[in-house]
């Protein structure tokens, strides 16, 4: 079968660490070009997307791994070129941009895949099956990590459109919306903004859900310096306890480990992308982004100590 020639646009750490190995190991894709403002990435490398699209390189698809701010215009131009698109999370800076890309892709007949890599972790599918049809007595999300470790020198995360602590926290939302048997809605939120930042460094949230009978909460924090904690803990109406650890990589049911079913986040992500292209389908999931937008709308704001990335 002819490989799907793919450009990686926005070549950086996530592209190097995750996308390239997944593409090379997929058996369906090959890296045909890359774009990086620093001029780094697999050859042929371009410093501008317009230059790539104006070249005579044969392309079938693109994986866009830039920060969310410039992603809409890049994706729009790629769709116009007829490329199938994989968008890193979060897919765009706003819900309106995602909806417009969906419309453009549908009109062009290309695949649009808004990826949430945490949903492809080993424990997520098993948790979804176990929670199907259940009442939820409680849910507690704890998503704590160190911004200096995961975004060193990246001031853009604290600029408008940079998402702040919601950049990792949206992974938690993607897991929760994937496994719960009914939608989540933001009831209240407190966002903690560094004195010199436009986006929050921490957030406390409360949710409601048609399937929920008790407290549904989330704590997101970028100030944890002694290791990461990425957990989702759920108690069902019949008293069972589920705990997703390591961002969804491990699942405990009543304290016992449940075997995982995933080949890995990014390998599974690219397998899904290949299937969507084969079927000429799109998969556009905006629920995690909606929760971020809703939190911004209803939140109280508190100012905390200034931050230097």
TrEMBL record:
Pfam families: GFO_IDH_MocA (PF01408). The keyword Oxidoreductase applies. InterPro entries: Gfo/Idh/MocA-like_OxRdtase_N, Gfo/Idh/MocA_oxidoreduct, NAD(P)-bd_dom_sf. The keyword Oxidoreductase applies. Keywords: Oxidoreductase. Residues 4-113 form the Gfo/Idh/MocA-like oxidoreductase N-terminal domain. It comes from the Bacteria. Belongs to the Gfo/Idh/MocA family. This is Gfo/Idh/MocA family oxidoreductase. It comes from Sphingomonas swuensis.
């Amino acid at each position: 079968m002819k490989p799907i020639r793919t450009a990686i646009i926005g070549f950086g750490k996530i592209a190097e660490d995750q996308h390239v190995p997944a593409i090379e190991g997929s058996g369906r894709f090959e890296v045909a070009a890359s774009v990086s403002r620093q001029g780094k990435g697999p050859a042929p490398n371009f410093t501008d997307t317009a230059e790539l699209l104006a070249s005579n390189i044969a392309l079938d698809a693109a994986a866009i791994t830039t920060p969310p701010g410039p992603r809409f215009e890049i994706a729009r131009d790629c769709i116009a070129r007829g490329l199938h698109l994989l968008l890193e999370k979060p897919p765009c800076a706003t819900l309106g941009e995602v909806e417009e890309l969906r419309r453009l892709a549908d009109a062009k007949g290309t695949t649009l895949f808004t990826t949430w890599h945490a949903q492809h972790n080993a424990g997520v599918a098993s948790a979804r099956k176990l929670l199907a049809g259940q009442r939820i007595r409680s849910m507690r999300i704890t998503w704590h990590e160190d911004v200096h470790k995961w975004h060193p020198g990246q001031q853009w995360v604290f600029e408008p459109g940079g998402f702040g602590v919601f950049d990792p926290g949206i992974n938690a939302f993607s897991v929760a919306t994937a496994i719960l048997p009914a939608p989540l809605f933001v009831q209240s939120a407190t966002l903690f903004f560094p004195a010199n930042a436009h986006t929050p460094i921490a957030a406390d949230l409360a949710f409601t859900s048609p399937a929920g009978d008790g407290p549904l909460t989330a704590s997101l924090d970028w100030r944890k310096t002694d290791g990461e904690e990425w957990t989702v803990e759920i108690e069902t109406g019949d008293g069972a306890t589920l705990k997703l650890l390591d961002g969804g990589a491990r699942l405990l049911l009543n304290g016992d480990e449940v075997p995982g079913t995933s080949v890995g986040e990014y390998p599974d992500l690219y397998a899904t992308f290949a299937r969507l292209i084969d079927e000429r389908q799109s998969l556009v999931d905006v629920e995690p982004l909606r929760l971020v937008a809703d939190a911004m709308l209803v939140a109280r704001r508190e100012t905390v100590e200034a931050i230097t990335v």
